[in-house]
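ERR on first pass: missing label on line 2. Operator R.T. fixed the label and resubmitted. Corrected input:
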Amino acid sequence: MLGLMQDWPLLCHKVLDHAARQHPRRKLISYTDDACVESNYAELRAQALRVAQRLTAEGVRPGERVATLAANGARHLAVWYGALGMGAVYHPLNPRLFPEQVAYIINHAGDRLLFVDPAYVPLLESLADRLTEVRRVVVLCDAARMPPTRLPGAIDYETWLAQVDGDFEWVRVDENAAAGLFYTSGTTGPPKGVLYSHRSIVLLSLTANAPDVYGLSARDVVLMAVPMYHANGWSWPFTVPMAGASLILPGSRLDGASLCEIASRHGATVSGGVPTVWQGFLDHTAKTGLRAPALRRLFIGGSPCPEVMLRAFAQDHGIEVIHVWGMTEMGPTGSACTPTPETAALDGPGRIAWQQRQGRVPFLVELKLADDAGQALPWDDQATGNLNVRGPCIVRRYFGAGDAPLLDDDGYFDTGDVGTIDGNGFIRITDRAKDLIKSGGEWISSVALENVAMMHPAVQEAAAIAVRHPRWDERPLMALVLKPGATLTQPELAEHLATRVPKWWLPDAVVFVEALPHTATGKLDKRRLREHYAGLLLTSGNKI
Amino acid sequence: MLGLMQDWPLLCHKVLDHAARQHPRRKLISYTDDACVESNYAELRAQALRVAQRLTAEGVRPGERVATLAANGARHLAVWYGALGMGAVYHPLNPRLFPEQVAYIINHAGDRLLFVDPAYVPLLESLADRLTEVRRVVVLCDAARMPPTRLPGAIDYETWLAQVDGDFEWVRVDENAAAGLFYTSGTTGPPKGVLYSHRSIVLLSLTANAPDVYGLSARDVVLMAVPMYHANGWSWPFTVPMAGASLILPGSRLDGASLCEIASRHGATVSGGVPTVWQGFLDHTAKTGLRAPALRRLFIGGSPCPEVMLRAFAQDHGIEVIHVWGMTEMGPTGSACTPTPETAALDGPGRIAWQQRQGRVPFLVELKLADDAGQALPWDDQATGNLNVRGPCIVRRYFGAGDAPLLDDDGYFDTGDVGTIDGNGFIRITDRAKDLIKSGGEWISSVALENVAMMHPAVQEAAAIAVRHPRWDERPLMALVLKPGATLTQPELAEHLATRVPKWWLPDAVVFVEALPHTATGKLDKRRLREHYAGLLLTSGNKI
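pass 2 clean. output:
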């Protein structure tokens, strides 16, 4: 027997309808390279309807992908809602990927229409020969700022949009219809596409705004320092309007000085992003003494937030850092480190140690800690295993990857992250599975080694990777970048590490380098490091 | 093209799975008539699985209704989850309805299995002759407390449950399958059944726990003073475990002294209910000077919260009163009066006036203010119209009511409440449509008249109803209950009202009565008042 409630599909554009109806004048602030434009949700909706109408006139069909190559901005957001609102699929591209990867992704996704920031026109031009499907490029600017280009069908956004009147209604699609496409920048193999449905995005936005995850209210002003092209912008393009909060889209202004100035000018209460971006904010504010006084909560994810950063935000700014964990395949928000009664009273080192965890999962994310055979391990903060997840916002299979099974027999997806879970459900990620170092049958956490190395005042960045060893199978090699002007010897490093990690974890080799390779999302690229040191065979058997 | 995310149906028992997995030891405190039992979500889940297994053994089939006639308690809650978890439909009965209504509802729902508190056994026995389907009554107690009874198949809960071992798995049903059935206590016509689906309950619980509605965190301790049999217990039996908050089920102890003592003993941070229940709390604490110091937020719904109550909670207790609005047909939560930036800074009378509004709707509730022809009216705080709603948690049609169309052409349900909406989306309910008084073609709000009358220190309760009038069609009659020992003359009342409402609103007749009739949910029963005064024809044309 079925219930007798209304059939009301979970569609992404209804989020914008809600914001425009309930919070029509809530501010939407958007930075371009030369301006700051203040708008609101009612205007965003009107613009998105025009985009939807114009895309329809352009011949875009439901399910077709509409690509964007742009920083966070109101036009970019209008293209997302416009595309999904007429049944197409928005598909943001990460401009920081290697150009050949961008070309691969555009072709793999079958993008025919592409919206691009003026700043990325040269990048796109450099790829133009390799793009097999693109037939029209819309540059996100007005006619006056349109750069000269020979990209196919190039036109400026405002001229393109002026051809319709906005008299359009959203297309009602199945809630399981595709709405957004994101490729993972993966450090192994070619990029893989994750195809979000309307349903998965709406459900993720609902659960990600629980009080114990983002917890946004209509009084919040959210500075979106996470690029929209990273993992659905952490769902903020939907979560923020759903909450009726103000949204600030800072364009490419993600340097410390800009973040501080923008947050301070508009009274941002909440922000978030990867640690490197917010290290810039700390550096700038330490130098200048400036503050963003309304800023109270900062969600840090993508990489673990170093302890020194946690402390600096708390002590110098009164800003609470909240770890979040997730990935494109998870919709992307998987967990947040917000207190339970058991952890709420922690302070001092206990609190810092707790804050460094990746948090606990909200409803709609089912979590399993599994050994390599898929068997469940205890949540005792000791057993280390693979973090597997299941739920309506978790990937089932990759786009264009055929029917290759991605889930285990119980429907769980293996995140590739390795860690422990404590008795209160708090995850501690110790490594990426592929980055673990297996020495004599025992695991060494490369992340833990790196964190300890980075606590040394001379070290700016550290990377630990596995290198082959005839006796122990693998042993750690550590690559270090020192701070400008700083010096450090191998014995000094060994002394620093020896009191902080098990003795058998000490690296067998240390190399000092000018810089370390990073992926397009700013993470250490250990695959390239491993390739670089692939020929090395450690034989000393001696620790440093 | 469909998205490629996991197929994970929204099922109510997954809420309990989540709570048991992520918050296994979070306290569940349950009062019976002679005990206070402390348990947790892991134990609740284990018990619910046994209920599900036992119901299956009993021959209950998917879709069949399983009735409960009980106060808020852990066994009652285990029966809900057990029933829905094996595919059946939990169906709570309101013991405060007239006995003939209870019998009507049991038969109409086709209840064959009924779980009853020992205290309600006599009520059930008084109906036994009229129950056509009930074949088994399980009394929610252990063998030692089992009252002697000749109810069909009567057995105590613990003995009944002891016959299974709990080795059971939830049944995976369609997310649109029926999960819960609630009858409205309506003041017109026979009670009508609203059949919730798993999907509607899960979605309501997600959206009702947005930071701007209940906003519960895992640190909250929720004293559930709303009976579970009222409109799905405001969804708290699902919302609270979803948030990982502690839950206190106070049994029948809803008097002021008990509420204060229970809230204080267990550190309740949040509660809610109808105003009459919380008036008891205010009376008790005013008399005794006692406090519930952890209590910070109080959700008041069902009837408007009088201004004096708002003030008393704020000034004497530091408790924030938050108006909520909804009804069984809405899942039930429709709106909450939490601040937007425009209202957050209000204080003094402005804040009190704002707090008396019914609030704004969260995502998943679409709101239309309509005239009698269904045309949309402006949200200008002036235009008064019918509040229509649409969404996945709103009723489509009533249970067992055939295919009679209940929604308008756009899918909206008319709530029967009449009010205004301001430019920030805040609803102000001025009346039930059927309680409006139409005088010379203009509407008089009976609720507004009553509120103003109750501001007089001598007045304990007031009811305004329409009485026929040859010239004006309808004119107001006011029935008043005075406080013990207080006196009030008609001229004194007229003087009090005259400065606070339009002159033409002044009642044509005033009657002083010992008591006013109430419905089973504690609301003024204006239908009975109107019946009582149906013969009256006002002819004076003079106001009081």
